[in-house]
Structures are given as C-alpha cells and as structure tokens.
Amino acid sequence: MSLPPPIAAAVVALSLPGLAMAAPAPAPGPAPAAAEAFSLAPLPYAYEALEPVIDAQTMRIHHGKHHQAYVNNLNAAVKANPSLQGKSLEALMGEVQNHPPALRNNGGGHYNHTLFWKLMAPQGQGGAPSQALVAQIGKDFGSMEAFKEAFQAAGAQRFGSGWAWLVWTGDKLVVTSTPNQDNPLMGDAPVKGTPVIANDVWEHAYYLKYQNNRAGYLSGWWGVLNWNEANRLFETATRKGK
Ligand SMILES: [Fe+2]
Question: Which domains are delineated in the chain?
C-alpha cells in the first residue's frame, strides 16, 4: 500500500540523520546548580598596594587562598544545613554556638576577612580618625596613644591565631581579642559589639615579611589602617543605638 505524499515525505525525512521533523525533548538532567550563598569580593586595591607594610605575596595568598577557602567551606556548610540558608552572614554569626564548628570557623573567617580588607588602604590614603572617633577614644582610653598601645597588646598577647578588635559595645569602645576566627558578633563572644577596627594576627597575615615578629607587624599596621572605614563603622554603630 502506498502512503499519501505528505506522510511519505515525513517518513523519508525521519529516516535521514539530521533531518528530523522536530527536535526530541532534551532528556531530564540534573537541576542547574543553585547560586552559592556567599562569594569572595575582589580586594579594593592591588595586591602590592599595601607595600612595604604588607607584601604582595602575603596579600595574594591571604585573599586568594585563605579567604577563598573560608568562603568555599562556608558555602558547603550552608548547603548541607537548610536551617542556615537564606540568612545574612551577620545573622549566622549570632547562632554559631548552636551549630558544628564549620560555621563558626568559616563563617567567622569570611566575615572577619571581608571587614579586614576594607579596613586597610595604601599608605597615605586611609585618611584620619574623625573628631567623633577621636573624642570617644579619648574618653574610653585616655588618648590615641593609649588606645594604640592597648590594641597592639591585645594582638600581641593573643596566643596562637586570632584577631585584635576595637568594638563599640553600645555605650563605649572596648579593645578585645578573639581566638581563631571568632568575632564580637558571635552569640557566645565574651565581648559583644560592633567592630570598628580589626586586625588579623594569624601568622598567615604577616609571616612572609615579619616571620615571628608579630609586634613589628602590629606597630607597622597603623600605616595601612583605613581610618575612613573605621570612622564609617563607628558612625553607623553609634547611630544604631540612638
Ligand atoms: Fe587571615
């Protein structure tokens, strides 16, 4: 039996590779990967911009390897636990004590380093402390010099790895330090508050240039402190309480 011409043409077309009348529906594959919850922002300056206080190689490894690893591990921790999803980093910091240490260590690592990069600027570009910040430091520490001494001592005395902080606690500025990647936002932090200045005293922050001389790193670091950012953090923190 012969087929009517249109049907015959369709049969011929379907039998020839590449001439199918309609593309078959794609086979169902894995769903597209969900966007990662957190990502590593580029540095706000070049790797070599903080020399000679902090060398380019230290910055490259610190930002590109260490900070990237905290971000990757934080994303993995969030992906594995639905109760952590859809929350800001700050909100997650408040509940680290209720979760396995991966959130504390990597969430803290991401939060602290994000703050740290912005709190530095090339020498001569960090501005000066605002009148309001100078006044509050004078009130709480006696003088800028006394504050700097207290901050350096906090960093020097932190055994092992950690951070030195200037924190607004709601009614005053306090110098404190934390171990590892802990920070003053964490739900179980001994001194809770809003960071105004933060310095990373892990060896990975200074070892290539300063080796074991953490005190030298701490005293040199004032040369790259971004006072403009510290002023902004202080202003935002104190405005919140009003
Ligand atoms: Fe670090």
Answer: 54-242 (3.55.40.20)
